[in-house]
Automatic annotation (TrEMBL):
Keywords: Endonuclease, Hydrolase, Nuclease. This is Metal-dependent hydrolase. Residues 46-231 form the Metallo-beta-lactamase domain. The keyword Hydrolase applies. PANTHER family: ZINC PHOSPHODIESTERASE ELAC PROTEIN 1. GO terms for molecular function: 3'-tRNA processing endoribonuclease activity.
Amino acid sequence: MRLTVVGCAGSFPGPTSAASCYLVQADDGEGRTWNVALDLGSGALGPLQRLCDPVDLDAVGLSHLHPDHVADVSGLYVYLKYRPGGPGRDGPLPVHGPFGTASRLAEAYGLEPGESMSDHLAVHVWQPGTPVRVGPMTLTPVAVEHPVPAYGVRVEGPAEDDPARRVVLAYTGDTDACAGLDALAAGADLLLAEAAFVEGRDDAIRGIHLTGRRAGQAAADGAVGRLLLTHVPAWNEPGLAAAEAAEVYTGPIATAAPGLVVVL
């Protein structure tokens, strides 16, 4: 299983990156590559096309419904609906998200009341703790703390060096420290953690985002193998989130950048 960062800018697209989108891929025993997009935020559909034809996506998992995580689903719908030669896939693309995802996506696209995207997007509501199977991968949503209904996602799949061994990618979506974050991170091989806030600057704002230090603490408490920090806004000082995380987590730490590939 491997992760490619498509977009990692926090809260809005930055000058060098689209907003949140992560392509997770795994090969099955017959050599077929399965493709899952975790979030599809503002500006992400463009760079995603350099990595994967959107027609070849097998599922989209939406952590929550803020625009920096879902805005480009509208563009994806256009791509599937109007692509010359037809959609190029059998059946609608599964999209998993919080309750209200179908109506939010339809409203964002501008559909009339009663119209649906279901001819090309099959929307399913996350059920906390209930795994969703996508080829050789399983996606398990875990409720986390954010001002709107939000989920982190544990993705389990075959290790690249030994397909018989299972590895876990834990993606936080947007969250503050909470019991759900602890459950999400526990024992993960890679924790892909947002770190939008800064210690000292944002201490009075809770229930929305992690700082680098809080992300590092989750990694330490969960005994994760590696920590990859993401969702850092353009106004934050580069490297600061990683420095905060290193104060409490002694494992490998990196900061996401577009095109970064992590092999699990």
